[in-house]
Write a structure and sequence with these properties.
The complex is a heterodimer.
Chain A lengths: L1 H17 L7 E4 L2 E4 L5 E5 L2 E5 L6 E9 L17 H13 L5 E13 L2 E11 L5 E11 L2 E10 L5 H13 L1 E2 L3
Chain B lengths: L1 H19 L13 H20 L4 E2 L2 H14 L2 H7 L2 E5 L6 E3 L4 E5 H4 L5 H16 L2 H9 L2 H12 L3 H10 L5 H5 L3 H17 L5 H17 L5 H4 L4 H15 L10 H21 L3 H14 L4 H14 L4 H15 L5 H13 L2 H14 L6 H17 L1
Parallel strand pairs in B: 2-4
Antiparallel strand pairs in B: 1-2, 3-4
Classes of the chains: A alpha+beta, B mainly alpha.
Chain lengths: 180, 395
């Protein structure tokens, strides 16, 4: 959660310095590429790619890749490359459950799902942070070789919209891994 | 900017110096605004408790809470209880910790409660925390430091090094009551240990159990290779406190064997939290601690299918040598005890599935779905069944 907040601040700083986006409709980060609408702006930092339309505290789409050996912050579990999607989903949920910055986590959906042909899982959950702010997240994850990929749409509960979910669906469909 | 950094550095140094100092603890005598400071401290404590109560991390079990209050009441005379109105709350947290807010609200992590052996050890823990309240350690700590923001900053620096505590600090926020979470300086902890021992002995408990609590938990920290939780990370460190405790016990001169321990009553009241905490340990990936908790539970409730299922889950998820074989044994025991529960079938099905035994995997998944057609993860199970059919035919 702290890293995510850092990303958000980094994003806001980059927005302030960039001004208007320069046609950033296709982007790559790490070893993946994806497409997104021009009105969304992005910040890329190594294994992360974050885009937003109105500001990260309103909504964002975050795409991450993490090596299976990289430990999580709150659970000592790790994602094993031989895991089934359901087992990987459980690790993600356990990481969130063990994170004290996430309050009142409610899992609304936990289903098998594919991201542009890659078999994985789909989670929908809501949570609160200190101060009572509530968020809703649509989260896709899958394992490919030694990498775990996650793509999530996160929005303040009051800003979660079908329009953004449709944008996220387009991002998912455009997602491609460029190297193993 | 450099001046600010230099000031912050000095403030930090002053905090650590205060913690390590052997000079007498700050006194409240002669202070004109003690009442006002204390009122503010209690007000802040109440605000933070409201945050905690709404955070979803409170473990609620009314019968257990009533039992905890009953023990707390035994430890303090009426006039003290009237002032502090002690309330004991449980936090869903597998780490070994307990802390007291200055207004008498004491939080025990499910992790520490589930590791205690008997009521006397619980009394030792509560008496220690109550002493932090009754001896106004939070207020005295502030008076000693003079500067509230300095304390908060210092606490953050100190606590950030302990993985399990950083999150809690973020949750609580930058307020005075953080002192209660991190523990207090050496003289306050020593005072709480000493007065706590006197309180439990006066209430008729075997004070020797306080020592056993320390030793038992130290052993667990070592064998589990755990990061030290706050209750023991405070000054003096655990070994020093054990030595202090031995010294206090020698002075008490009370025949230990005559004191109350109440092991059976304690375990009967706390067995549910033991199993619950084992599931928290599992989520946190602390497999050995989870296994120990579930096995402890099984010594109290020998025929509980839920506990056998949990042990199966711990072993399956840990995945060390022989774990999957052992997990199957525990799942089968859970099924034998309660054939109507779908979860052990699902667990055993996952093992067969990953082993490539499509026939047994299919049979297990079908059993779980038959028992619970609307189970939350039925979409996964249906996917496994399709895969079993496909792979089974291919063979």
């Amino acid at each position: 959660m702290k890293k995510l907040l850092c990303l958000i601040f980094l994003f806001m700083a980059s927005c302030a310095s960039l001004g208007q986006p320069v046609n950033p409709s296709k982007s790559g980060s790490g070893n993946f590429t994806l497409e997104y609408p021009e009105e969304w702006r992005k910040v890329t930092t190594g294994e992360y790619l974050m885009i937003t339309r109105d500001g990260a505290f309103s909504q964002y789409i975050l795409v991450q890749q993490r090596h299976v050996n990289r430990p999580f912050s709150h659970t000592k579990k790790s994602i094993d490359k031989g895991m089934l999607p359901q087992e990987a989903a459980q690790v993600i949920l356990d990481e969130m459950t063990s994170d004290r910055a996430i309050l009142n986590l409610q899992i609304l959906e936990n289903l098998p799902a594919a991201v542009n042909g890659y078999n994985g899982f789909r989670l929908v959950f809501t949570y609160q942070i200190k101060g009572g702010h509530k968020f809703k997240t649509l989260y896709y994850g899958f394992l490919q070789g030694e990498w775990f990929y996650s793509l999530r749409y996160n929005a303040a509960d009051s800003r979660y919209s079908d329009k953004d979910v449709e944008t996220f669906r387009q991002v998912l469909e455009s997602f491609k891994i460029t190297a193993a | 900017m450099n001046r600010i950094r230099y000031s912050l550095f000095l403030l930090l140094i002053s905090f650590f110096a205060a913690c390590c100092s052997t000079t007498p603890p700050p006194s409240l005598e002669g202070e004109l605004n003690v009442a006002e400071d204390e009122r503010r401290l209690w007000q802040r404590a109440a605000q933070e408790q409201a945050l905690l109560e709404g955070s979803g991390i409170i473990y609620r079990e009314p019968a257990l809470e009533a039992y905890l209050h009953q023990i707390a009441e035994k430890l303090q005379p009426l006039e003290v209880r009237e002032k502090y109105n002690f309330r004991i709350r449980l936090l869903r947290d597998p780490y070994l910790n307990a802390f007291a807010f200055p207004n008498g609200v004491i939080y025990l992590h499910t992790g520490i409660l589930s590791r205690l052996d008997n009521e006397a050890q619980l009394a030792a823990l509560l008496a220690h925390e109550m002493t932090h309240c009754t001896h106004r350690h939070a207020l005295r700590a502030f008076k000693g430091l003079k500067n509230e923001n300095n304390l908060v900053l210092s606490l953050k620096q100190t606590v950030a090094r302990i993985a399990s505590t950083g999150d809690l600090l973020n949750l609580f926020g930058n307020t005075a009551s953080m002192a209660a979470i991190n523990g207090y300086a050496q003289y306050f902890e020593t005072e709480a240990d000493l007065v706590g021992l006197q309180l439990m002995a006066r209430a008729g408990y075997d004070p020797g159990e306080a020592l056993r609590l320390f030793e038992h938990l130290k052993q667990e920290l070592e064998t589990e290779n755990l990061e030290e939780p706050f209750f023991f990370a405070t000054h003096p460190q655990l070994q020093k406190r054990i030595e202090n405790c031995k010294g206090f016990l020698a002075k008490l001169k009370q025949p230990a064997a005559q004191g109350i321990r109440n092991k059976e009553v304690f375990l009967d009241k706390t067995y549910q939290v033991i199993l619950y905490n084992a599931s928290l340990d599992l989520k946190a990936g602390r497999f050995r601690a989870a296994l120990r908790g579930a096995e402890k539970y099984l010594t109290i409730r020998k025929d509980d299918s839920k506990a056998y299922f949990l042990v199966g889950e711990i072993l399956r998820q840990r995945g060390e040598a022989e774990d999957e074989f052992r997990a199957k044994v525990f799942y089968e025991k859970a099924i034998a005890l309660d054939p109507s529960c779908p979860d052990p079938y699902k667990g055993i099905g996952l093992i067969y599935f990953k082993e490539g035994d499509w026939t047994l995997a299919k049979r297990s998944f079908e059993s779980s779905l038959a028992l619970s057609p609307h189970m939350r993860d039925r979409a996964y199970i249906q996917g496994y069944l399709l895969e079993c059919d496909k792979r089974g035919i291919a063979q």
